[in-house]
């Protein structure tokens, strides 16, 4: 997969690598091998963590090591420098761990890179090394769910429009045809799945659960020694899951299905813009997300027109990168007119990091100006725009819709709401005045002060004390 144009592309890259200067890169990565989604609460396996670590090492070899012709200009080769690196992932254990493992590969422990700088000599002559052989603690920005920042990496979460548009696929002729034509194949898997899948009859298995069935079987074949399925069956399950998941995440005539690709486009452009605005000070940005954002972006960016492979699910630990460079050797950051952007995709740990043309241009690189225009034309650029596109008024979207929007945009409450609030405040004030008057009268009658006390059982009771008796 993903090799149709790779030979030509790689030869072009090799031929001119020495005449280029890379200034920054944004990488979007998928998690590695994990437990199945079918049972929920999925986590990275040891294999998955290793895969993400390996991918981080691959990007280190390309962009950070001094021996690489693609080393980012003036990036720190050994020591992690916070101002040069940005990393972000949703507050989900599997994605936070994905980013962490990637970053461990990007900047391994100092003792593994350069022992001479991993140890510090103190004034008394003793030597000190940080724990774990000089482990480097790279800052990772965790994004809380249901916050405006969450939409940039997972713009499909809590988005009614995405849910409705995706579900409409199940009413399409394409879905109905696949459901009918694959019924016999799925029902033939009943003997294999009945002990691990919550089903009671063969009729419970169908194309309607294409990804869930494939995912469960794919995980089982790697981690369950008693599970067996033929390569041809697995291949058919994979291709059916490919077709279903792509359709759920992209349809050119129904842009609501790919809202998450539009927010991701904005996140990518924002990070590259920071590199440009800071004249190369920000050098490497990492975003960790899910396969659905890959598929939606493949469709949105026209990559399926270049290769049919982009209709398929990206493998575990797949990455796509956006490389900002100038087509000549430089020692300083260039003017914007001299900047170019290249898109690269690596399918899992085995594939190469290959360049592909975006937006139907047929060109592997776009000028910074053209790339910016193309991305902006597809991107959702604000939380308010996302709320509108999603048709959402919940959570933070209430700021932009209905009563809250009227209060914020007009600088005050609507008359009806203001009347209700005013009446409530009046009642509260009158209640307080009445209570004070009641207490004052009791004190005058009893000659004492009112005291609230607790008895031995902890219940509250009232009482009064004589004057001067405390």
Automatic annotation (TrEMBL):
The keyword Transmembrane helix applies. The chain crosses the membrane at residues 416-441. Keywords: Membrane, Signal, Transmembrane, Transmembrane helix. This is Lysosomal acid phosphatase. It holds the Pfam family His_Phos_2. Residues 1-19 form the signal peptide. The keyword Transferase does not apply. InterPro entries: His_Pase_clade-2, His_PPase_superfam, Histidine_acid_phosphatase. Belongs to the histidine acid phosphatase family. It comes from the Eukaryota.
